[in-house]
Amino acid sequence: MALPMPLAGVVGWPVAHSLSPVMMDQWLAATQCDGRYCAFAVKPEDFSRVIKTLPDMGVVGVNVTLPHKEAALKIADILSDRAKAVGAVNVLTFKDGHIHGDNSDVIGIETALEPVTHRDLPVLVLGAGGAARAALTALKSLGFSNIRLTNRTRERAEDLAQMLSPSAQIYEWQDKRAVEACGLIINATSMGLKGQNPLHLDLKGVDARASVFDMVYNPLKTQLLDDAEAVGLTTIDGLEMLIGQARPAFEAFFGVKPVEPSDQSVRETLVSALGL
After folding, report:
1. Active site annotation includes 140
2. Which segments of the chain does DSSP mark as H helices, in order?
3. DSSP code of 168?
4. Residue 256: other Cβ atoms inside 10 A
5. Are 213 and 95 found together in one domain?
6. Which domain does 175 fall in, by range?
7. Are residues 268 and 208 in the same domain?
8. Average of pLDDT values for 54-68?
9. Is the peptide bond before 21 cis (omega within 30 degrees of 0)?
10. Within a domain: residue 81?
11. pTM (2 d.p.)
12. Which of 52, 69, 140, 204 is catalytic?
């Protein structure tokens, strides 16, 4: 008797913009894995009920995107150390009657930041939500220790520092001193996302060797990255994180590691999907 075909997906609200199905479908084809990956549009008020129903539908796991990552933390029966540290979940798997929660965003950020070599210079993280928590966890694992935080609501930045980076310096939103001598700037907010306000940041005083990492991938070239390129800084777009966080999720869902297609990279496929 043939085993049922593994079914996984991404849960968000909205979710039509997600590139995860494009990426996962390409890996499924490349690995010749007999599985399927779908997008599930789930309203916040329906999240708990839907998640508890998915295993009965044959779903083995889901990626979790905005605005559900903190709700996913609460619904999980078993949490990974990464998920506990971050306080948010972006991967749920259903095994042995339990809901397992993990945070592969940390791995995605580590992948994106691996090329950054000047780890003794200050790092500015913009934001104080789940993405910022994942960023701080990844920065710690990579050896960055001189952290600066800024958020439109200062109290949330202070709470985040207390939770994950007690030695971090807190700056008021748009305080020009926050970027001075920075070797890395990370946008962990939704600003710059398609349909949202662009993020304008005065980059005067940033170290000439600095990198600017924007977690936003739609649009791929955000205002922040445009501004960084204009002053000669290295830029890292959100696709690096997207691909990096998806790899462990694919393996968790389908039981095999993703492989790059021989004819073109996943990144090229995603860029094409963005219409670029």
Report:
1. no
2. 20-31, 47-53, 69-75, 81-86, 105-113, 130-142, 154-164, 223-230, 238-254, 266-273
3. P
4. 14
5. no
6. 108-236
7. no
8. 94
9. no
10. yes
11. 0.91
12. 69
